[in-house]
Automatic annotation (TrEMBL):
SMART domains: HATPase_c, HisKA, REC. The chain crosses the membrane at residues 7-31, 270-294. This is histidine kinase. Its EC number is 2.7.13.3. The keyword Nucleotide-binding does not apply. The keyword Phosphoprotein applies. It holds the Pfam family Response_reg. It comes from the Bacteria. It catalyses: ATP + protein L-histidine = ADP + protein N-phospho-L-histidine. Keywords: Membrane, Phosphoprotein, Transmembrane, Transmembrane helix.
Length: 684
């Protein structure tokens, strides 16, 4: 479910990411195009402004040109000419004055603002204009005179006999150009018209105070270096602008229009904001993606590790299961035959003791085999409610005995963690294994605490539910990280040969897992170790069965001698076991026939009636359960006792049908009891 949800998120991110990137890129290009459009528009307007200005100047020059062909001027009648010019000036209200310059003497012959009189020296502005006109002898636009006069001048040359004789100049009110400029410039933006000297002729800002004065260095550099284009700059008022300009090739006057900053800055700002947002979004999404992937990978790795551990246990489990099975067969033969010997030498005290010693050792072997099988899982666990209080009470004596007097054993059981789901026998064995490990870790004595408490969040790999943490803590030597990592591996031990089997923690782990829980180990070197079994809490209404006696405890009953002879057919492929069973039963007074395979057994069944069939489960060809079915076809109602090693127990029980089961290893008394009970149950 979690993986599923994550892949959905991943999918969503994968779907949105290209859209976000596409929108961001689209917005960026759109805004850039918009900016280019606004710039082109402004540059166009600046060119139009210069055309309008030129138009105005040319019209004024044309009007002035009419005067140049005056007869009075040609004849040198200056006074008459003066009054004639004054009449023309009245018709052109934008002209403040008209002057006449003598190109030969370089003197000003008259100025309409003054009464006609003696010639005066030329002002600097007009002298410069005269110089320029001398070179081309064409009408031209001059420049503006500085305050307080503030007039924009145009000049018309007057020639006679191929020589430049006079120059007529008209001083135009700059307001005329100011009107043109405001008509062209976008309202609210800064704009100016500048003459050939770089002085303001018109200006949208502070026109009155700036007209006739030099423009900023930015403006003058721009017109020095090119005839049109854009330049950044700052106005006298401190406004930062990006300005388009165009210079007329005829008048050399130029128009400067700031690109509307709202139209430029906003798109730029927005494109930055959009790009930044897109980048941020992409980053966040990408980051989330990476984070999720990393977490997924970590989780997968953990899951794989758990799987690997189970597979390892599975493989070793199968192997040990097989070994233990054969081992059980051998032990059955050993124990059985020792039993027979013991019975025969009842009177010889010394021989009997020797037999007892050998039996004792064999039983220990059987215990080891059962440990092997416990973790090999072949011995099916009977999981049910287990009362920990009862379990503790039951093993406390044994525990104290196992760990010895130098270790202080304490049990702490929370009342709400009393009943768990597990197998009581296996759980007992697990606690004993842990206690023994604790003892081995505390050769100089110490404390061993067994505790049980409720836990909610324990392990992410366990299904949700209530759990109990059953932990065994010691104050011993602890484990290194390498030992801790391998501690539950089957056959891993750091103890000398004969002391460690390496199966203790494997069994504990198998119990935890089979109970639907888990196991973890906390350990610090020289501090101690806590092994924690996580077990499911039993439902509140669970009924705890009364504890049954442990499987391993061999019944100490005396063998029961039969009075009435019964015929038993013994089938086992293992010669030693078969012989032991036959011998045992014969000594108990039964009539016994035996064989090592199912086919021969069926032939014997055809020839003779038997009261009981005793068969091994695992045999080549026909197994015990199959033989039982075939035998009961021939002799309906025939009681069958199947002998099996633990390893088969789950499979055996499934295949048994009406047959009963006797687990290996067993001794003569157990065999006798099982046979007698089966025969009795048939009788009534
Ligand atoms: P065994 O006890 O037969 O060696 P176990 O499976 O019980 O096998 O333990 C495996 C190994 O883990 C031990 O040999 C020991 O090194 C280590 N170990 C287990 N329990 C403890 C503990 N309580 N303190 C220190 N080391 C431990
Ligand atoms: Mg151990």
């Amino acid at each position: 479910m979690r993986f599923f949800r994550r892949s959905l998120i991943t999918l969503g991110v994968a779907a949105t990411l290209p859209t976000v990137v596409f929108v961001a890129v689209g917005a960026f290009y759109f805004l850039r195009a918009e900016r280019a459009r606004v710039e082109a528009d402004t540059l166009g307007r600046s060119e139009i402004a210069t055309m309008l200005v030129d138009g105005r100047l040319r019209r004024d020059l044309a009007a002035l040109g009419v005067l140049t062909s005056s007869v009075d001027l040609a004849k040198g009648n200056m006074r008459e000419f003066y009054f004639r010019v004054r009449r023309v000036q009245v018709a052109n209200p934008a002209w403040r004055t008209i002057i006449l310059i003598d190109a030969v003497s370089g003197q000003e012959l008259f100025d309409l603002r003054r009464p006609f009189g003696e010639p005066t020296p030329l002002s600097e502005v007009h002298a410069r204009a005269l110089n320029d006109i001398r070179q081309s002898a064409l009408p031209m636009a001059g420049s503006i005179t500085p305050p307080p006069e503030k007039l924009a001048w145009v000049y018309a040359p007057v020639s006679g006999e191929g020589e430049l004789r006079y120059v007529l100049g008209a001083g135009i009110e700059p307001q005329a150009f100011q009107d043109l400029l405001t008509a062209v410039a976008v309202p609210g933006t800064t704009a100016a018209v500048v003459d050939r000297q770089g002085q303001f002729v018109a200006r949208t800002l502070n026109f009155e105070s700036r007209v006739g004065t030099p423009a900023t260095e930015f403006v003058r550099r721009a017109i020095r270096e090119g005839s049109s284009g854009f330049y950044p700059g700052t106005t006298y008022e401190g406004l930062k602008n990006y300005t388009a300009f165009h210079t007329s090739s005829w008048s050399q006057w130029s128009a400067h229009l700031a690109v509307a900053s709202a139209a430029i800055d906003a798109p730029t700002t927005w494109s930055f904001v959009a790009a930044a947002l897109a980048a941020l979004g992409t980053l966040v999404l990408g980051g989330t993606l990476v984070l999720l992937m990393v977490r997924d990978m970590a989780e997968r790795r953990r899951a794989e590790e758990t799987l690997r551990q189970s597979q390892k246990m599975e493989a070793v489990g199968q192997l040990t299961g097989g070994i233990a099975h054969d081992f059980n067969n051998l032990l059955t033969a050993v124990i059985g035959n020792l039993d027979l010997i013991r019975n025969r030498v009842k009177d010889n005290e010394r021989l009997r003791r020797l037999a007892d010693n050998a039996l004792e050792a064999s039983r220990r072997g059987a215990k080891l085999a059962s440990q092997l099988l416990a973790f090999s899982r072949s011995q099916r666990m009977a999981v049910g409610p287990v009362n920990l209080q009862q379990l503790f009470n039951g093993i406390s004596g044994l525990l104290a005995q196992s760990v010895g007097p130098s270790i202080d054993v304490r049990m702490e059981l929370d009342p709400d963690a009393r009943v768990v789901m597990s197998d009581s026998n296996q759980l007992e064995l697990a606690l004993l294994n842990l206690a023994v490990n604790g003892r081995d870790a505390m050769p100089g004595g110490g404390k061993l605490i067994i505790s049980a408490r409720r836990a909610n969040v324990v392990d992410r790999h366990l299904p949700k539910g209530d759990y109990v943490q059953l932990s065994v803590t010691d104050t011993g030597v602890g484990m290194t990280e390498e030992v801790r990592a391998r501690a539950i591996d089957p056959f891993f031990t750091t103890k000398p040969v004969g002391q460690g089997t390496g199966l203790g923690l494997s069994q504990v782990y198998a119990v935890a897992r089979e109970s639907g829980g888990s196991l973890y180990i906390d350990s610090e070197i020289h501090q101690g170790t806590t092994v924690c079994l996580v077990l499911p809490l039993a439902p509140a209404d669970a009924v705890v069965p009364v504890a049954a006696p442990a499987v391993l405890e061999a019944a100490e009953a005396e063998p029961e001698l039969v009075t009435k002879s019964a015929a038993v057919l013994v089938v086992d492929d293992d010669k030693l076991v078969r012989r032991f069973m036959s011998e045992s039963l014969r000594s108990l007074g039964y009539e016994v026939r035996d064989t090592d395979n199912g086919v021969d057994a069926l032939i014997l069944l055809d020839a003779q009636r038997f009261d009981l069939l005793l068969a091994d489960f695992a045999m080549p060809g026909m197994n015990g359960a199959e033989l039982a079915k075939a035998a009961q076809m021939k002799q309906p109602g025939l009681p069958v006792l199947i002998v099996s090693g633990y390893a088969d127990s789950a499979a055996v029980e499934a295949a048994l049908g009406t047959a009963r089961q006797l687990r290996k290893p067993f001794d003569m008394a157990e065999l006798g009891a099982a046979v007698a009970e089966l025969l009795r149950s048939r009788e009534p």
